[in-house]
Fold these 2 entries.
Entry 1:
Amino acid sequence: MTIKLYCFGESGNAYKAALPLQLSGLDWAPVKVDFFNGATRTPEYRAEVNEMGEVPVLVDGDITLTQSGVIQHYITEKTGKFGGATPEEAREVLRWQFWDNHKLSSQAGMTRFLMNFLPEEKRPAEVIAFTQGRLKAAYQVLEAHLGGA
Ligand SMILES: N[C@@H](CCC(=O)N[C@@H](CS)C(=O)NCC(=O)O)C(=O)O
């Protein structure tokens, strides 16, 4: 049965689910969510798709999962891919997934939204400068870890 992924093209969090789905070779198809017209904020979406009012949402038969990290974990469970070869490696993957959710993707999503998707006259310069600073600090941590700093 084809796995469904509720998503939209601009969503970095949905991309984090779509990429491993695609790379793993699983049979999946996107279900486009009209985020910019408020679809995730409707009572129907919250009742029927995701109480958290977010994408991505993965539906695999009877299983519905939200949170990109949980979806990534599920793809690993299902395919044996991307999760590390040993318990130590698996913990290291998990450690960086937690970090990403808290420090990188959350800041990146917020900053992109404020800078690009809000109408120009509503973009709060001071808030953008603050979130850019947080994002830059997160990228520095990642860069150092990857050996580039
Ligand atoms: N921690 C969540 C974040 C999901 C998230 O924030 N998704 C955004 C799109 S990139 C969203 O649907 N936001 C709706 C909202 O905040 O109203 C994950 O990793 O899946």
Note: The domain at 3-79 is CATH 3.40.30.10 (Glutaredoxin).
Entry 2:
Amino acid sequence: MIKEKFNLANKVAIVTGASKGIGEAMARGLAEFGAKVVISSRKQEAVDRVASDFNSLGLTAIGIECHVAKKEQQEELVEKVMKKYGRIDILINNAGTNPYFGPIEKMPLDIYQKTMDININSAISLSNLVYPVMKNQKGGSIIHVSSVEGLHPSKMMAAYNISKTALIMLGKNQAIEWGKDNIRVNMICPGYVKTKLSAALLEHEAAYKSFLKNAALGRVSTPDEMAGLAVFLASDASSYMTGSTIVNDGGLLHSPLIDNF
Ligand SMILES: NC(=O)c1ccc[n+]([C@@H]2O[C@H](COP(=O)([O-])OP(=O)(O)OC[C@H]3O[C@@H](n4cnc5c(N)ncnc54)[C@H](OP(=O)(O)O)[C@@H]3O)[C@@H](O)[C@H]2O)c1
């Protein structure tokens, strides 16, 4: 049955940056389809709270602290998950940051480096830690949460945009190198989603107005609207998809080239 392909029972999923926002919604989606989810972020207290909420809904979740730019915490995360469940089937590299809004020529290099460490370098190293596990299991699904900003430039956020473009190319390279091991790697590019991360943009009146004008659906999305895609890409329903970049942006990237016609 095709419906059965969406079933994630007996699968173990790690979701980074899952204490709130898009990561939390994706983790809940996976858990509702039967996965055992590992909620991860920088703060143990925050991930414990989400895991406990999920468990009280009858879902299966544990919280494990991991700052994704800290290699030793990544290693501990994978070790703890293997100790608890003995397998990893799904990895969602979702944790991200956008600390600099300003012109390129004034961008401090240390902030640029921090952005790259969290948004792209962490995805390389965490995927590399999970790779031997998935290879040994003869399969797995890795999802990178990129952004429409990785496909199309906006002013004042070059560091973020560069990191999100790099994440897409990382996934394409992983897809062609790891396809032989039945490990699929796909990318999700959300448009604007109402979360803490997007607050600076969405609370800026002029930026918000221009966004509303350009998005075909004329609104921002909720984190929940990103979850179905994560379930699909994590599951066997997408068993032939790898190296793909899926845009989920309310039509933002189709903003008309000619207006008022
Ligand atoms: N919101 C949007 O409009 C939008 C659009 C396109 C793409 N995205 C992407 O979607 C992803 C999630 O963003 P969001 O909007 O859901 O943000 P959010 O609501 O601010 O949540 C960010 C999550 O990441 C965690 N986090 C932050 N830094 C971390 C680090 N160094 N290590 C581990 N966890 C960390 C945070 O938890 P702690 O504070 O507990 O660590 C939190 O759980 C990001 O990659 C972002 O670039 C967002």
Note: The domain at 3-254 is CATH 3.40.50.720 (Rossmann fold).
